[in-house]
């Protein structure tokens, strides 16, 4: 019997919080049927399949690129990929979004894909099907390069790849990350090659960079690969130097993490975020220069996240320029490795360093607080102490949001409105805190709220008010659940 399909239904039509994914066997059969379509698959067997969940950045965010602490989790929406051998030397790709009957498919010559420049085959059109074609092409090339490094070239006999996804988050790399992770896992299984989780995650990050998602990080793929499976939700704790997974933290049953997808768009946000990351690297170069001028040895790793907040505020913050033109920085400090500096752009160096160092601190304190609330805590909190800890965790999310909005100017009227209402004791659902986690084609807000029927009813009231205010209803997803386990466990 088919279970209920969890798809984003506008709250104006039907208030609901989504946490359940469609039946796993049904989805796998759907992808297999795609492969069988029009005889594109050489045979029914063997068909290899894999799936990966959507991941959510909870706290830390941009600190992943500066060696800071990051908290992520997964949701029950998944991308499912199946692959089958071909005998005609072709790479055939078929894609289909959840709840859509229309499929898109294209054919490429396997040998040419492996030995030509990848950009020649990537589609400029950023429609979902084009993005998935690009990811499949890039994945074949990454797997091919890895196999060549082991002196075992990728076979040229051909392969059919079917991609189906229920991840529909706008303005987020969650969907592309899930699809890319599922493709890599499926191809590794198909070719029977032993690739470590770190190597798979690095491939996924490289694939996302190939298609233009410059903010992609290895830890995003690690989350989609390694998230624990189970009925509850888990936070994954990383120290991004460069991608150390410190372990999962189960989320207490009396709180819930929600992803709220808004329709507002800010396509300039990605560019602004990239400029901020470059400004942060500038700040680190200045701090390293100060160390050398004092005859001290700077941190060889070059991670801004290794600068303690106290040391930064006391000694280094005042030394960083509020604004610095790119050409002035290059003239004084030289070029930055791995970052292109716009010579005419004015970078906000101090604000960037303030935010990036603060993000790591907020994430570390948030994770410590959630660890105290966790059901497996050595000293479980009860009574007033537990309430205070929930409020502290929420305030840390709000502190991150204020930094994001005030220091970087990265937020939206829609996100500010929903965060203010959710955390308003009089009109909201009593959410402990919330922050913007993605901006782009849409806005994505993560909220920590009480896990109770009363809080949920109040939340739906806020959502209805949002619909009346902005004329568009957001979608809400719960984190965790049976279908939120990583690709390595499914």
Q: Mind explaining what this structure looks like?
A:
The protein is an alpha+beta fold and 490 residues long. It has a domain at 24-58 and 73-235: 2-Layer Sandwich (Ribosomal Protein S5, domain 2), CATH 3.30.230.10. Helix content is 41%, strand content 19%. The protein has helices spanning 24-36, 110-115, 128-149, 174-190, 197-210, 218-226, 269-293, 309-316, 326-333, 349-373, 383-407, 413-422, 453-470, and strands at residues 47-59, 69-85, 90-97, 104-109, 159-165, 234-239, 244-250, 255-262, 324-325, 346-347, 433-439, 443-450, 475-478. Strand 6 and strand 7 (244-250) form a beta hairpin. It is globular, with a radius of gyration of 23 Å. Mean pLDDT is 84; it is low at 1-16 and 18-22.
Give the SSE map.
Layout: H1 24-36, E1 47-59, E2 69-85, E3 90-97, E4 104-109, H2 110-115, H3 128-149, E5 159-165, H4 174-190, H5 197-210, H6 218-226, E6 234-239, E7 244-250, E8 255-262, H7 269-293, H8 309-316, E9 324-325, H9 326-333, E10 346-347, H10 349-373, H11 383-407, H12 413-422, E11 433-439, E12 443-450, H13 453-470, E13 475-478
Parallel strand pairs: 3-5
Antiparallel strand pairs: 1-2, 2-5, 2-6, 3-4, 6-7, 8-12, 8-13, 9-10, 11-12
């Amino acid at each position: 019997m088919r279970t209920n399909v969890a798809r984003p239904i506008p709250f104006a039509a039907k208030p609901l919080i989504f946490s359940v994914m469609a039946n796993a066997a049904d989805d796998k059969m759907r992808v297999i049927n795609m492969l069988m379509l029009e005889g594109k698959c050489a045979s029914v067997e063997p068909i290899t399949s894999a799936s990966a969940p959507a991941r959510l950045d909870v706290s830390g965010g941009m600190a992943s690129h500066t060696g800071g602490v990051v908290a992520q989790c997964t949701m029950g929406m998944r991308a499912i990929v199946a692959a089958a051998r071909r005998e005609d030397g072709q790479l055939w790709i078929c894609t289909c979004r959840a709840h859509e009957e229309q499929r898109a498919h294209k054919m490429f010559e396997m040998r040419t894909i492996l030995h030509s420049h990848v950009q020649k085959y990537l589609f400029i059109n950023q429609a979902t099907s084009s993005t998935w074609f690009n990811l499949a092409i890039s994945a074949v090339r990454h797997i091919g390069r890895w196999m060549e490094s082991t002196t075992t070239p990728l076979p040229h006999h051909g392969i059919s790849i079917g991609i189906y996804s229920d991840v529909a988050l706008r303005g987020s790399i969650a969907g592309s990350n899930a699809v890319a992770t599922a493709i890599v896992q499926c191809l590794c299984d198909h070719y029977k090659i032993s690739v470590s989780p770190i190597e798979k995650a690095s491939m996924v990050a490289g694939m996302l960079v190939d298609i233009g998602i410059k903010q992609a990080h290895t830890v995003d793929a690690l989350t989609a690969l390694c998230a624990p499976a189970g009925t509850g939700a888990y936070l994954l704790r990383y120290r991004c130097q460069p991608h150390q997974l410190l372990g999962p933290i189960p989320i207490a049953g009396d709180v819930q993490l929600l992803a709220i997808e808004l329709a507002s768009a800010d396509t300039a946000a990605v560019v602004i975020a990239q400029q901020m990351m470059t400004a942060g690297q500038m700040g680190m170069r200045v701090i390293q220069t100060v160390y050398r001028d004092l005859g001290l040895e700077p941190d060889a790793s070059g991670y801004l996240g290794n600068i303690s907040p106290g040391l930064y505020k006391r000694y280094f913050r005042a030394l960083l320029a509020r604004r610095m033109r790119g050409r002035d920085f290059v003239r004084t400090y030289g070029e930055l490795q791995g970052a292109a500096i716009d010579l005419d752009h004015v970078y906000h160096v101090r604000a960037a360093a303030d935010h990036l160092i603060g993000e790591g601190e907020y994430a570390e304190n948030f994770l410590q607080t959630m660890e105290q609330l966790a059901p497996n805590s050595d000293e479980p909190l009860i009574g007033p102490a537990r309430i205070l800890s929930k409020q502290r965790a929420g305030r840390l999310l709000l502190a991150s949001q204020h930094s994001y909005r005030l220091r970087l100017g990265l937020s939206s009227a829609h996100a500010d409105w929903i965060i203010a209402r959710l955390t308003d004791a009089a009109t909201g659902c009593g959410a402990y805190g919330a922050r913007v986690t993605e901006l782009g084609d849409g806005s994505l807000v993560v909220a920590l709220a009480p896990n109770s029927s009363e809080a949920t009813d109040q939340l739906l009231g806020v959502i209805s008010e949002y619909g009346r205010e902005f004329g568009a209803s957001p979608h809400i997803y719960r984190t965790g659940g049976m279908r939120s386990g990583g690709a390595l466990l499914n």
